[in-house]
Amino acid sequence: MVGFRIAQGKLVILFPEFHQRYGPWAVVAGASEGIGRAYAQVLAERGLNLLLIARRREPLEQQARLIERRYRVQVRPVALDLACTDLEQRFAQACQGLDIGLLVYNACFSRVADFRDTPLHEHLATLDVNCRGPLTLCHGLIPPLLERGRGGIILMSSMSGFQGTAMVASYAASKAYNINLAEGLWAELKDSGIDVMACVAGATSTPGFESVTPEDRRAQVFPMRAEAVAREGISALGKRPVHVVGRLNRSVDAVGRLMSRKRRTRFFSKATQNVYRDS
Questions:
Q1: Average pLDDT of 210-226?
Q2: 61 vs 47: CA distance, rounded Å
Q3: Which of 105, 139, 157, 215 matches a 20 to 30 Å C-alpha distance to 92?
Q4: Could you give the residue numbers annotated as active site?
Q5: Nearest to 78 by CA among 103, 102, 96, 61
Q6: What is the pLDDT of residue 277?
Q7: How far apart are CA 146 and CA 267, in angstroms?
Q8: DSSP secondary structure string for all residues of 38-104
């Protein structure tokens, strides 16, 4: 069932059942650019108010003002480093007074380089942002979601999370954590009205991707648009515990599952090295 409203002279489709289940507020962590930015806009289209979290204040506030003008929803931007040691307390303060029905954890930290060439503090930052961050936010939100009896959680993961991958060893391991965390929470919460899903993306055209990927090699990995990833992720929520976005990514994953673990690790490692080695 859908409805309609007018925003800035444009017809906007409303989804009252979606709003009832996952509204009135949604949290998007890592919302200032890329996939997180796209998720924020898709959710605003569907009429949800937004708590947007990112480390950099200026682009986050610009995004908030744009969404408020375009979609006529409430937006609360919170500049917050998701690797901070007091994340639990600061996140609880940011959520105070809000009836939150949906969490999208998109924030991530990654460096593409050989393990030995990556400083230890960057490996640890990967764990803080990619593992401790979603764990902390889920732990804070699940009790009120259980009280509501409805809601959802999307943890963004990566194709690299299905196997170890050279040059992104820590990142791949952290994304495997997100897949397994989502599956475990899905099993625990599926009968409580709370939908949990790991949304697994491949290469995606984001500022982060473009900053580390040589321009002449980007076409090799067929990147998806961030908006397409977000829209498909929202559509898949509630249908399965893990969803790989994009037909090409699903085809690659299906082929990979025919390989032994050893061969799959070598295959994806070689593909990554071909793109990023000596870049």
A1: 71
A2: 19
A3: 157
A4: 171
A5: 61
A6: 77
A7: 42
A8: HHHHHHHHTT-EEEEEES-HHHHHHHHHHHHHHH---EEEEE--TT-TTHHHHHHHHHTT--EEEEE
